[in-house]
Design goal:
This protein is α/β, with parallel strands linked by helices. About 40% of the residues lie in helices and about 20% in strands. The structure holds glutamic acid.
């Protein structure tokens, strides 16, 4: 193996369709081949984190639920049955290669709330120090629609950024990114390298998802934006072959997304990777300029406030054209934000009836996205 050699901490995401066959259940020999790859990387000193889907698909097979559409509580029950089998299979497959493993089940709040984020990070770091491979999935048995990651691509990206991984590998049912979904467009061209996820790249994704997994190319690009912003590279590669990581190293087809050359660090990694902003602030051109030069966002530059957010929530900051240019923790709740949008600092206290802070989003709590930087560079 050579091309994965330079990466020290690698998060590998495995889709349900790779691990589970609807009629025969778990694909044990494939799992054994992946465990062999993990052992090879680990023996070279890399730390590996696995984000494994498959709980619901496996539970469905074990319970004999066939292909019927499941109600929320049925898929949660299927996940309960499937997860125990899935984790057992991982533990056995890695043990056969001399590796220890530990199961981590995450709920959205575990990465989106700062205190829980730090706690989850400490546990996973400790596992890595003990040279045990974290096997991570969403805690599907308790996650309801409103509080779920929903797809393991974005979960894996969040894990990669939380743990400071330098590479995220998404093993998929497709061998990389094409100019259009190849199943629908025979002329679609393969893209081996993506330097930046621009709106043009995003337009290539289409909306298709495979039968067993929730995420299509769109969620993979969302994952890519989160991972690359924090300084991790991302690879999308075909998982449906034995030893899929060794295949990447042999140079089999895959798409490499380059990390940002100017990644955010520490506390700001947590802000930049927030999955669902609670609200949106559309700003004027003057505020765009101020943000690009590293200043706080003042109420005076805000044109439009949307969403029902509380003080301390993450909001997306949009340019006058509606493009997201930054993300940050907002200093006011939505009701007060609406009241003071457009006002000068001197006018705010009178409107609110209390001595208020001047910034809507303080620069210490603000991350300007690369898209924003590009707009500035292009003038
Ligand atoms: N967490 C789900 C499962 O293990 C999978 C979600 C996904 O495939 O993105 O069944």
């Amino acid at each position: 193996m050579s091309s994965l050699q330079k990466y020290r901490r690698i998060t590998v995401k495995i889709g349900s369709a790779l691990l589970v066959d609807r009629t025969t259940g778990l694909k044990r020999s494939w799992l054994a081949s992946l465990a062999e790859d993990v052992a090879t990387l680990s023996s070279r000193g890399a730390e590996i984190l696995v984000v494994s889907s498959g709980a619901i698909a496996l539970g469905r097979t074990i319970l004999g639920l066939g292909g019927k559409t499941l109600k929320l509580e049925e898929s949660q029950a299927a996940a309960a049955v499937g997860q125990i089998a899935l984790a057992g299979a991982w533990s056995e497959a890695l043990a056969a290669r001399g590796l220890k493993s530990g199961q981590i089940l995450l709920t959205l709040g575990d990465t989106e709330e700062r205190r829980r984020y730090l706690n989850a990070r400490a546990t996973i770091s400790t596992l890595l120090k003990m040279i045990a491979v974290p096997i991570i999935n969403e805690n599907d048995t308790v996650a309801t629609t409103e509080i779920r990651y929903g797809d393991n691509d974005r979960l894996a990206a969040r894990v990669a950024t939380m743990m400071g991984a330098d590479l995220l590998v998404l093993l998929s049912d497709i061998d990389g990114l094409y100019t259009a979904p190849p199943a629908h467009d025979p002329d679609a061209r393969f893209i081996p390298l993506v330097e930046r996820i621009t709106p043009d790249i995003e337009a290539m994704a289409g909306a298709a998802a495979s039968e067993l997994s929730r995420g299509g190319m769109r969620t993979k690009l969302d994952a890519g934006k989160i991972a690359t912003a924090s300084g991790a590279a991302m690879i999308i590669a075909l998982g449906a072959r034995d030893n899929p990581l060794a295949a990447i190293e042999r140079g089999e087809r895959h798409t490499l997304f380059q990390p940002s050359s100017n990644p955010v660090k520490g506390y700001k990694t947590w802000i930049a990777g927030q999955l669902e902003p609670a609200g949106r602030l559309t700003v004027d051109a003057g505020a765009v300029g101020a943000l690009m030069s590293g200043k706080s966002l003042l109420p005076a530059g805000i044109r439009l406030v949307s969403g029902a957010f509380s003080r301390g929530d993450t909001v997306a900051i949009l340019s006058p054209e509606g493009r997201e240019i930054a993300r940050g923790l907002v200093a006011y709740d939505a009701t007060d934000a609406v009241r003071i949008a457009g006002l000068k600092t001197a006018e705010i206290s009178a409107v609110l009836g209390y001595e208020a802070r001047s910034a809507m989003v303080h620069r210490d709590d603000l991350v300007v996205s690369r898209v924003g930087e590009d707009e500035k560079a292009e003038g």
